C-alpha cells in the first residue's frame, strides 16, 4: 500500500511537501520538478505500485482513473485540441527513475514520433 522509502509515497503522505494541482480519493497530481514541456504534470495513485508491470486486474479502474484525470488536466490547460502526450515510462530501459507509477501529462509544444 505504502512504501516508506518511496519518494512519491512520501509526497502522497505529505512527509515531503509538494504543491498538488489535483487530488482526489485515488490519486494526486503534481508539477514535474524538471519540466520537459510547458505543461508537465505527474498523476500518481495514492497506493504504491512500482511499475505498470505490477498492475493487477483489480487496478484496472485505478489505471483508467489516472488517464481520465490526466485528460482533464490537459483539457483544463487548453491542450485538448492541439494535442498532448500521455506517457508511462516502464523500468529503467524506458527511462523510469521513480518506481511508483505515474502518468506524465505533457503539453504546450509539438511532440515528435517516435519518442526518443
Ligand atoms: P520517470 O523518469 O520515473 O518516468 O519520471 C519521474 C519524474 O519525476 C521525472 O520527470 C522527474 O523530473 C520527476 N521528479 C523526480 N523527483 C521529483 C521531485 O522531488 N519533485 C517533483 N515535483 N518531481 C520530481
Ligand atoms: Zn510509492
Fold and architecture overview:
- With 116 residues, the chain is α+β, with helices and mostly antiparallel strands.
- The protein has a single domain (7-107), classed as HIT-like (HIT family, subunit A, 2-Layer Sandwich), CATH 3.30.428.
- 20% of the residues lie in helices and 22% in strands.
- It is built from two helices and five strands.
- A five-stranded antiparallel beta sheet has the order 1-2-3-5-4, covered by helices on one side.
- The termini are far apart.
- The model has no long low-confidence stretch (mean pLDDT 97).
- The structure holds guanosine-5'-monophosphate (5GP) and zinc ion (ZN).
- Guanosine-5'-monophosphate binds next to strand 2.
- The site of zinc ion (ZN) has 6 residues, from helix 1.
Draw up the topology in text.
Layout: H1 7-12, E1 20-23, E2 27-31, E3 39-45, H2 60-76, E4 84-87, E5 103-107
Guanosine-5'-monophosphate (5GP) binds next to strand 2.
Brief synopsis:
The chain is an alpha+beta fold. The protein contains 2 helices and 5 strands, in the order H-E-E-E-H-E-E. Helices cover 20% and strands 22% of the residues.
- In CATH terms, the superfamily is HIT-like
Q: Strand fraction band?
A: 15-25%
Give every kind of bound small molecule, once each.
Answer: guanosine-5'-monophosphate, zinc ion
Distance between the termini: 32 Å
Strand order within the widest beta sheet: 1-2-3-5-4
Radius of gyration: 14 Å
* CATH architecture heading: 2-Layer Sandwich
Helix content: 10-25%
Tell me, what's the shape? globular
Largest sheet: 5 strands, antiparallel
Number of domains: 1
Number of helices: 2
Alpha-beta content class: alpha+beta
Instruction: Say what the CATH topology is.
Output: HIT family, subunit A
Output mean pLDDT: 97
Quick one: CATH class? Alpha Beta
List the secondary-structure elements in sequence, H or E: HEEEHEE
Amino acid at each position: 500500500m505504502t512504501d516508506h522509502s518511496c519518494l512519491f509515497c512520501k509526497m502522497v503522505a505529505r512527509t515531503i511537501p509538494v504543491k498538488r494541482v489535483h487530488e482526489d480519493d485515488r490519486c494526486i497530481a503534481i508539477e514535474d520538478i524538471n519540466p520537459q514541456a510547458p505543461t508537465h504534470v505527474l498523476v500518481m495513485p495514492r497506493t504504491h505500485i512500482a511499475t505498470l508491470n505490477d498492475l493487477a486486474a483489480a487496478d484496472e479502474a485505478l489505471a483508467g482513473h489516472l488517464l481520465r484525470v490526466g485528460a482533464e488536466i490537459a483539457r483544463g490547460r487548453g491542450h485538448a485540441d492541439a494535442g498532448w502526450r500521455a506517457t508511462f515510462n516502464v523500468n529503467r530501459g524506458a527511462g523510469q527513475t521513480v518506481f511508483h507509477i505515474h502518468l506524465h501529462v505533457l503539453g504546450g509544444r509539438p511532440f515528435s514520433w517516435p519518442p526518443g
